[in-house]
Amino acid sequence: MSAIPDRSIRADEVTSPEFARLAKAGVLFILPFGSLEEHGSHLPLGTDMMQAEEVARRVAQELGAVILPSVGYGECRSTRNFPGTLSLSFETVRMLAQDIVSELARNGVSKVLVITGHAGSGHMAAIRLGVLRAVEAQPELRAMVLSDYDIAYELRGKEFPEDDGHAGLIETSRILNIRPELVGKARPVGGTRPPKFMVLPDPETYIPTGVMGDPRGASAEKGETIDDYVVDSLCELVADNFKIKRKKSGRGG
Amino acid sequence: MSAIPDRSIRADEVTSPEFARLAKAGVLFILPFGSLEEHGSHLPLGTDMMQAEEVARRVAQELGAVILPSVGYGECRSTRNFPGTLSLSFETVRMLAQDIVSELARNGVSKVLVITGHAGSGHMAAIRLGVLRAVEAQPELRAMVLSDYDIAYELRGKEFPEDDGHAGLIETSRILNIRPELVGKARPVGGTRPPKFMVLPDPETYIPTGVMGDPRGASAEKGETIDDYVVDSLCELVADNFKIKRKKSGRGG
Amino acid sequence: MSAIPDRSIRADEVTSPEFARLAKAGVLFILPFGSLEEHGSHLPLGTDMMQAEEVARRVAQELGAVILPSVGYGECRSTRNFPGTLSLSFETVRMLAQDIVSELARNGVSKVLVITGHAGSGHMAAIRLGVLRAVEAQPELRAMVLSDYDIAYELRGKEFPEDDGHAGLIETSRILNIRPELVGKARPVGGTRPPKFMVLPDPETYIPTGVMGDPRGASAEKGETIDDYVVDSLCELVADNFKIKRKKSGRGG
Amino acid sequence: MSAIPDRSIRADEVTSPEFARLAKAGVLFILPFGSLEEHGSHLPLGTDMMQAEEVARRVAQELGAVILPSVGYGECRSTRNFPGTLSLSFETVRMLAQDIVSELARNGVSKVLVITGHAGSGHMAAIRLGVLRAVEAQPELRAMVLSDYDIAYELRGKEFPEDDGHAGLIETSRILNIRPELVGKARPVGGTRPPKFMVLPDPETYIPTGVMGDPRGASAEKGETIDDYVVDSLCELVADNFKIKRKKSGRGG
Amino acid sequence: MSAIPDRSIRADEVTSPEFARLAKAGVLFILPFGSLEEHGSHLPLGTDMMQAEEVARRVAQELGAVILPSVGYGECRSTRNFPGTLSLSFETVRMLAQDIVSELARNGVSKVLVITGHAGSGHMAAIRLGVLRAVEAQPELRAMVLSDYDIAYELRGKEFPEDDGHAGLIETSRILNIRPELVGKARPVGGTRPPKFMVLPDPETYIPTGVMGDPRGASAEKGETIDDYVVDSLCELVADNFKIKRKKSGRGG
Amino acid sequence: MSAIPDRSIRADEVTSPEFARLAKAGVLFILPFGSLEEHGSHLPLGTDMMQAEEVARRVAQELGAVILPSVGYGECRSTRNFPGTLSLSFETVRMLAQDIVSELARNGVSKVLVITGHAGSGHMAAIRLGVLRAVEAQPELRAMVLSDYDIAYELRGKEFPEDDGHAGLIETSRILNIRPELVGKARPVGGTRPPKFMVLPDPETYIPTGVMGDPRGASAEKGETIDDYVVDSLCELVADNFKIKRKKSGRGG
User: Fold this and answer.
1) Helix/strand/coil (H, E, C) string of D61-113?
2) What CATH number is attached to the domain comprising D118?
3) Contact C65, C59 (CB under 8 A)
4) What percent of chain B has pLDDT over 70?
5) E251 found inside a domain
């Protein structure tokens, strides 16, 4: 975890008039989305939210941004039947994203980044649909939606195995970097994957350990490398998309 | 703020198997609800969430409970047109509450307390309706829904003025107790109230300062007294309703 | 029941051009809401509607108003499992209230009073939400929503017991005043109440007689006193909120 | 209007235990639906409800039945833009019908007749859809849905003109029979009709008087003949469909 | 089936710029709706779609029109429990019709004809409701909705039996005309009909053969006569309603 | 286009009893989904549907399957503002997919393949969500959902350029193979792409030609190679997922 003092602003800590000033100044607002979801027997249920919050914090620190209260729940399909997964419906996620982003635009906010630690395809489609409806109603708003795993998984097939996935080597390393005290010592290995393109009522039967990939070689160092890569890439994308000047260039954290 | 070491459990910090054990053991789960809402020019937008989290933390500590990730957004009607208020629709709040509580029951959780710092009547009706639908579908679940202000406002007409309200003396004192660094020095006074029973498109015109009551006499001491009262009363209600043994008796924190 | 000849206008009895004139003249329109709901073994299922219609009639008579056809159904939670309770869903009540009030505004009506004899919190939240959406879409409309029990229960702790409630002393007295021939001689007494703040699938188990309070001392005289108080208070509120001149002052009926 | 004393039972006038007995005895329940809708400049807005109530009352009297509180609102398309028409949305009508009929079935009622005075095709489709969903969920329920105009218009091309319609000769005669004091002397004549099969945003432009047909020859006697025919035919249909024995045979009222 | 070369345009075969030109030129667009529905043991499931497509093709040929991709599914109530009936919900049909027609109007199309081979009352109400909402939002659009059976059944009581219906003499003849190779030799006869005005969970029990009427005398020649009548009548209606000049007059194909 | 005689079965051409036999025999049912969507100025609006139908036909021929009527409309976001794109809402696509697949399962069908030529992420999420709900309600059903472009784009970075996309080289070649007469000679080249991860109200401004990639080198031969690859890969996947024996092995068409 970074030792740099936190210069990002939390939306819940500012007053109404301060919020008005930030919106008027064209500051970027970041909405972290997570999930409460099984992540093997070695990672905490809030794994997705922790990663999204960490990335949001570091991006906000580097680019200057307001961080909104996290949404700690998501739509979780493949892990739904493991203990501890609380899955919102598609519509609930869509409406949440739509309401929050619409209300930001109604308040004069013009730049919104939604960063979700949970990257399930239904979950992300729900967020994107909600944000699209907000943007279509208020076209002056510019909005960006992605998962930090859209970036982190660029490292698969390079430093990390091609088949790494949910609660695997990358995710375990990142939590070791962010919240090492929450990571269990015994780390189950994932085996098979669900058959391709099937829409299944029982996907968990194909991933009995709740893990995809092999988290045994995970380390905080690897996690730091991944997080640096994610944050750096994301800062570049965000700076480009929203025409924001980066406070520094190159890797770091 | 209490100096007692925090013994409550956070749902996002446990693993899937640990969650299963907690559910099976019949432990109480607490869902804090807040809002991102104007609270005068002196209190932070997250005032409601901070109070709900503080109460949840202390109740969990005293009774033993699992705290779920907070929902930091609510349905806000009367303050909707002040900067910084992000109001979810009624349906979004209803669905969120319904989904989360249903999913808890599906996971075997049998005792749920929803504690909301925001106490708008629409917001609370939405939570109650969502929880009712969850409970009707899974009648083995026992669920309790209230605002800490259902208890705190019992003190109006006693130690506190009858007409104290939103961002007023009680609320300002409580935030002074919990997060003093976030409370502004200049505290506007509220005047008139909206006409009784009218359903208004512009309620903010009747509360120009965004405050109901007079927060100038607020103090952390008063806040502590209120919080102790709320926590103690709530622990008693929860212990009664869910047949949980309190770890200690009497006032404190 | 009052002997004064009825000077109020019924919307179903006027023609299209007459309606247009009334709307243009800025006349108040009153929508009575009731329920078909168990009220002990001694009161009729339409108790709520009868009271709302009586109050609507008398207010219309005093202030001059158009009375819309009553909605004889509501959302009934706590009595839902007693025979004879027909409970609409929250959404149905919301949509009904929203449609009717929106259509009034579309027709040029500028003042609407919704008076509901059923005062369940979900039911009232549904009406309020529907009316709010109508008002937000057509802000020139002024609308007021309340139950006659918002006023009648001001008498609890004064002339009437603090714990009087559903089908109790006040309600039985009022029906004795309005429709004495429908009130049974044997009047069951209520005992316990549901635990506070619990959201229950089976609230009826806590009110086995379907009565809250003790209706044995009810009388038409008490009912008349209550009705006079309700009508007088409501006329004052309505006159204030809508800037209508009262035709007479003081108590009466 | 019939001089026979009214032996039908009103659901709002019975108590909870009485309702339970009626449901258990397999008694027919009748739900009258109307509308608040322009009916020329000579007929009252509640014309549809008045006819449905009259028919319901007479059928109940002859076959023995419980009459539920009327729903005085409907979905009105072609007259929507005339003053005084309050049109519910399709979904609202559907949900109302579905909720009420479902709740009757949940209460053990096994025979339901929905009789609607308003016969717009959308309105009737909404009622039918709602009742269908209720019946599919509770198949032991037998339900019948029709408009009295499904029967009354059998007389077109016989005693009455083929092109008689809304607020025309038949309808005016029936209101002259039921509520003569509400019928205006000046009765506008309808001319053209909307083009066939067109779905129009402005159907009222094709029926400028709000009348279809020629109501000038209307009389209470004609109305009585029509009402007798409707009631007699309906009693026969109901008796057949629900296996109820008629108390008398042949025409009358 | 007609031997005339097909001069109608298929929307799926034109490019984006060509579509723009057609819309701008005010050309009529035709949307054929069908169903996948039991039609006795002798007719194919797509019977309704085949008839709608044939009629659409011939109308387009005669009046000049663009034919949209058919919707091969509908809401089917009375045959729902026979094998092979795939019934969409009312809402799905409504939304489909509304979306397609709204999108046509958004693209500048000003004349739309929806012709549905399936003529169930719920199905048609759903299409009409969807189209009505599209038209109310974009009132410059003119839209017409009907079933070819609104016209074909004008022949009942004349050349064809009064009680002919689903999969009966008319429908079988028409498919013999259009797709003779798909018609089975053994043609079951229908007997009773469901009781009038009943809303039934099991209508199929009243039509055990899935046929209404007697298809044994069906022939391609009869089918051709019917189709000619339908196309000619429809062309006249369409030409009138949309002010389109017919390319030829009188019967033919 | 293949010269092999078509042995696949069309659902609209079989009778009700034949459908029952096919369902009981465990035959695969294929639902082709398309769109009516701009595809440059050189490809027809029905491009997606044509490809899905071609693939469905060839898979059905090889594996033995029943082909359902195509859905010729989809949810189209990025091309929505080009002429000729008719975009269904997300909910409409979801409900259509859910209704059709649920009804298949209700009819005893146990194997369903949904193949969509349109591969927009929202569109596919909608289909997947609808199918998931059908499968969760009827878990004995096995369902597979994909776009032929999930397979065709495996060839990017190999025989075809990495940045080929909508209406580009691959798609143009495929339509040249299937429907050469519909492909325009002038083929616009695509340039830039929308910024990554942005949710845009006006994506078309980033793809002014409506094309992604360079279709100038397209040929029917390339199209045949792609189609063979898609059909062969899909047959293998389908055979595996549904345990169906392929009638022949290896590439071909």
Assistant:
1) HHHCEEECCCECCECCCCCCCCCCCEECCHHHHHHHHHHHHHHHHHCCCCEEE
2) 3.40.50.10310
3) yes
4) 94
5) no
The answer as to whether B3 is a domain residue is no
SS3 for D145?
A: strand
Alpha carbon of E104: minimum distance to chain F alpha carbons (Å): 7
pLDDT tens-place string over residues E175-204: 999 999 999 999 999 977 899 999 999 999
Q: What is the overall mean pLDDT for chain F?
A: 94
Q: D touches E (3+ CB pairs < 8 Å)?
A: yes
For residue C30, the Cα-to-chain-centroid distance in whole angstroms is 11
Exposure b/e, D150-161, CB count within 10 A at least 16 = b:
bbbbebbeeebb
Instruction: Please classify residue F19 by burial: count the beta carbons closer than 10 Å to its beta carbon, then call 0-12 exposed, 13-18 middle and 19+ buried.
Output: buried
Mean pLDDT score across all residues of chain C: 94
Positive or negative, the CA dihedral E98, E102, E105, E107 is negative
Q: Cα separation of B160 and B153, whole Å?
A: 9
Listed in order, strand segments (DSSP E) in chain C are 9-10, 28-33, 65-67, 111-116, 142-147, 198-199
- The candidate with the shortest Cα–Cα distance to B45, out of B156, B210, B203, B238, is B210
- Return the CA Rg of chain E: 18
Q: Is the pLDDT score of D250 beyond 70?
A: no
Number of domains in chain D: 1
- Write out chain C residues lying below 8 Å of D36, CB-based: 11-12, 68-69
Q: What is the pLDDT of residues A5-50, one digit of tens each?
A: 446 899 999 999 999 999 999 999 999 999 999 999 999 999 999 9
> What is the interface pTM, i.e. ipTM, of the complex?
0.95
> Residue A33 in 3-state DSSP?
strand
Answer whether E103's CB lies under 8 Å from F75's CB: no
Which residues in E lie closer than 8 A to residue F83 (C-beta atoms)?
16-17, 19-20, 23, 107-108
Residues of D with CB under 8 A from a CB of E: 77, 90, 121-122, 125-126, 128-129, 131-132, 135-136, 139, 142-146, 150, 195-202, 237, 240-241
Which residues have a Cβ under 8 Å from the Cβ of E229 and sit 6 or more positions away? E151, E152, E154, E155, E251
Residue B33 · residue B124 · CB < 8 Å: no
User: Which domain covers residue D40, as residue numbers?
Assistant: 9-242
Cβ pair F106, F29 in contact under 8 A: no
The CB-side HSE value for C167 (13 A sphere, CA atoms) comes to 28
pLDDT digits (tens, 9 = 90+) for C108-127: 999 999 999 999 999 999 99
Is residue F68 in a domain? yes
Separation of CA D77 from chain center: 17
Q: Give me the total of CB pairs closer than 8 Å, taking one residue from chain C and one from chain D.
A: 178
Most distant CA pair in chain B, distance: 54
Residues in chain B: 253
Our CA-based measurement puts residue B53 at a distance from the nearest CA of chain A, in whole angstroms, of 13
The answer to whether the beta carbons of residues A97 and A130 sit under 8 Å apart is: yes
**Using one digit for the tens of pLDDT, what is the confidence trace for B94-128?**
999 999 999 999 999 999 999 999 999 999 999 99
- Among A139-153, B237-251, F229-243, the range scoring the smallest mean pLDDT is B237-251
pLDDT single digits (tens) E10-64: 999 999 999 999 999 999 999 999 999 999 999 999 999 999 999 999 999 999 9
Q: Among C116, C133, C134, which residue's Cα sits nearest to residue C124?
A: C116
Asked whether residue C119 is domain-assigned, the answer is yes
Q: Please write the tens of the pLDDT for every residue from A190-205.
A: 977 899 999 999 999 9
Listed residue (D11, D26, D53, D52) closest to D245, CA to CA: D26
Q: Which of C131, C135, C201 is the closest to B139 by Cβ?
A: C201
**8 A C-beta contact, residue E108 and residue E24:** yes
Best probe of the F interface among E9, E14, E15, by most F CBs < 10 A, is: E15
